[in-house]
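User: Let's play a game. I give you a shape written as tokens, and you guess the letters that built it. Ready? Here's round one.
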């Protein structure tokens, strides 16, 4: 009987064998450890086409799981998910796939951690893509006008598995809803672009109002590079989601323009 090892194990196996030959048991341990990091590096070079399919599947399944977190998926949440599909301009077969993944995510036996581990494994070198995944998920989850505390808890777990720092999640949250607080649900706040709110503008750039002009410029340049649609698509963002990346860049530009105008930055 033949045994087939998962592709992401080969770095560990080869490293352990080489270490065993050169240094016995301790060498095998060190070799396996080195192999682990080789596996993580190679995972970052998964083909963009494979990443796009994985991104698409994980996004809709996770969205279904988030919407189901408070017991039932409302009609408004279903309409919001369908709205996301329309904005992505999915073909009929793609739409059916998205619905299938969404329903799978709602199922009681859906393994959220396993799905996120797979996605994280193949995006080790693509942190910007993980960030965009979270942006789209947060936007879609709130498209019905609210996010419950249970849904918020699932979103926090998603960030944890994707290794998105709490302060980055807080920035994404604050730009939409303001500082997190108590209550049964969080009503959707207007973005900086819609409200012209200076506080929201700083939140959009992940900054405090006390940030220096240099910090404002640095944060702006970093975010524009991070969310550049062409860059994200080259990393594996499905092209259907490019418009959402463009929307994020527009929000960043609007926020920066407001801060510049207020501060007199040239």
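Assistant: Ready! My guess for every position:
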């Amino acid at each position: 009987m033949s045994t087939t090892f998962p592709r992401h194990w080969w770095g560990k196996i080869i490293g352990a064998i080489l270490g065993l030959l050169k240094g016995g048991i301790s060498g095998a341990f060190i070799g396996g450890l080195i192999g682990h990091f080789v596996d993580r590096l190679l995972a970052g070079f998964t083909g963009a086409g494979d990443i796009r399919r994985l991104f698409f599947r994980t996004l809709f399944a996770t969205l279904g799981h988030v919407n189901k977190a408070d017991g039932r998926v409302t009609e408004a949440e279903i309409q919001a998910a369908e709205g996301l599909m329309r904005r992505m301009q999915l073909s009929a077969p793609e739409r059916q796939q998205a619905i299938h993944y969404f329903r799978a995510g709602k199922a009681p036996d859906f393994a959220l951690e396993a799905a996120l581990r797979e996605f994280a494994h193949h995006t080790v070198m693509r942190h910007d893509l993980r960030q965009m995944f979270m942006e789209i998920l947060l936007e879609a989850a709130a498209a019905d006008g609210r996010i419950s505390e249970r849904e918020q808890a699932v979103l926090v777990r998603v960030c944890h598995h994707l290794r998105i720092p709490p302060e980055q999640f807080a920035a994404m949250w604050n730009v939409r809803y303001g500082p997190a607080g108590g209550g049964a649900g969080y009503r959707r706040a207007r973005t900086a672009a819609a409200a012209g709110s200076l506080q929201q503008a700083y939140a959009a750039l992940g900054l405090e109002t006390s940030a220096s002009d240099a910090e404002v410029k640095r944060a702006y340049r970093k975010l524009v590079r991070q969310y550049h649609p062409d860059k994200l698509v080259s990393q594996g963002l499905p092209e259907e989601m490019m418009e959402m990346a463009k929307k994020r860049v527009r929000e960043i530009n609007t926020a920066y323009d407001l801060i510049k105008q207020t501060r007199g930055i040239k």
